[in-house]
Amino acid sequence: MRTIRSLCATTLGLALFSTGGEAQTGSGMVLSSNPALGELAARLLPDLAARAGMEMKEPVRLEERSREELVRYLEAKFEEELPEAEAQARVDAYALLGLVPADLDLRTVLMDLYTEQVAGFYEPDSTTLFVMDDQPAESLQALLVHELVHAVQDQSADLDALTDPAFGNDRATAAQAAIEGHATLVMLEYMTEQMTGTPVDFGQIPDFAAQLRPALEGMSSQYPALANAPRVIRESLLFPYLEGAGFVQRLWTGGERIAPFGAALPLSTEQIMRTDAAPPLELELSAEGATIVHEDVLGRFELGILLEDVVDGEAGVLAEGWDGDRYALMERPDGTRSLIAFVLWEDAAVRDRFVAVARGASSRFGGDVELQSMEIGRRPAAVLKIGATDGFSVTATLARRP
Predict the structure, then answer these.
(1) Spatial separation of the C-alpha atoms in residues 98 and 308, rounded to whole Å
(2) N or C: fewer beta carbons within 10 Å in the chain?
């Protein structure tokens, strides 16, 4: 489930390594009103830029902020990027899918998660790196390492543009995973060298993501808001750090420090999880007899959660056959809401298996369920209808590629 996009924040990764006017540091690479903080960042920057495979083009702005200022910033971002009506529409859609409770207060859950975890963040809007002023000295260096990578990224790639909601949930999540995974991998490599005193190259560690997952998952118990959040939200927050780091690490296995932007930027969560995956097919929806109040893409990642948690835990492997999707939250004139989801599959056998297992789990969704096998543009597809869907129709067509 997409959260707010502008907060490139250091959260769980830090727990792995808990070991006056504006002034310019002597190096000229960091602008900060806190000279000591600026000097520390300036010492780190050249090595971090080299590890990230990117070039410093201009000074980085670095400031401290209090928890109260963070809350005010988050409140403003929620109003801008996740207003109440959109938050409710997302809850309604995911509740019909059986992924969250129907009475979930999404903005409160996210506020609790961010204020519980955020130690610092880079804000692309102001091109400024902010550090919480309550951070212990032993975690400050790891925090700066992660966030400084974001600052360097933003000098070569427009981070806000890459995660634009107009791209849809899945593509924006994939871009966020590239951004966070890149920073996380650099942070982990740097801090490992600091702890061991031995040079390491994380690009040469096999099955990196599998080794990182137990560490990150084990830490979730330290964060009550995270541990108590619905799984789809919890996994959506972990995904950029965990799977994103694994994605970037695979880019580095050839020995070149490839930054995950430009031609290397993933277009779907499937490409984060499988580097050899082709770009997904895109769908366009049109409706008659009811209003589309919200539409988006689940993607390979969230479809996998749906299959594991709602449909059938053993059916999760079916997500490997995903080839694209789009869903619409519909509202009839009487105000009732229902959901229509179209899913494209790589072959008819996987499509038919999905339809069969989803029918068998119909009681786990948030309303009456109807499933049908079909074709869209000669591609195997399935349509999933949840709730009262009589009296209107929704049509899906393959989108024209530019």
Answers:
(1) 11
(2) C
Closest C-alpha to 369, from 379, 382, 380: 382
CA atoms of 56 and 323, how far apart (whole Å): 38
Q: For the residues of 87-156, what is the DSSP string, one character each?
A: HHHHHHHHHHTTSS-TT--HHHHHHHHHHHH-SEEEETTTTEEEEETT--HHHHHHHHHHHHHHHHHHHH
> How many C-beta neighbours within 10 Å does residue 152 have?
26
Quote the pTM value: 0.91
Between β-strands 379-386 and 393-398, what pairing exists: parallel, antiparallel or unpaired?
A: unpaired
Check: CB of residue 35 under 8 Å from CB of residue 114. Answer: no
**CB neighbourhood size of 248 (10 A):** 30
Sequence-distant (≥ 6) Cβ neighbours of residue 149 within 8 angstroms: 48, 52, 182, 183, 186, 187
Largest Cα–Cα distance in the chain? Answer: 69
Residue whose token pair is 């600052």: 151
Q: What are phi and psi of 150, to 5 degrees?
A: -60, -40
Give the C-alpha separation, 150 to 124, whole Å.
9
Q: What is the pLDDT of residue 126?
A: 83
The pLDDT confidence band at residue 402, using thresholds 50, 70 and 90, is very low
The CB density around residue 289, as the number of other CB atoms within 10 Å, is 12
Residue 14 has a pLDDT of 39
* Cα separation, 147 vs 200, whole angstroms: 21
Yes or no: say if 328 and 318 are a contact pair by the CB < 8 Å rule. no
In the numeric block, which tokens belong to residue 321? 């056959």
Please name which of 319, 138, 101 lies closest in space to residue 231, comparing C-alpha atoms.
Answer: 101
For 318-369, write each residue's pLDDT tens digit.
999 999 999 999 999 999 999 999 999 999 999 999 999 999 999 999 999 9
Question: Nearest CA to 179 among 109, 122, 255?
Answer: 122
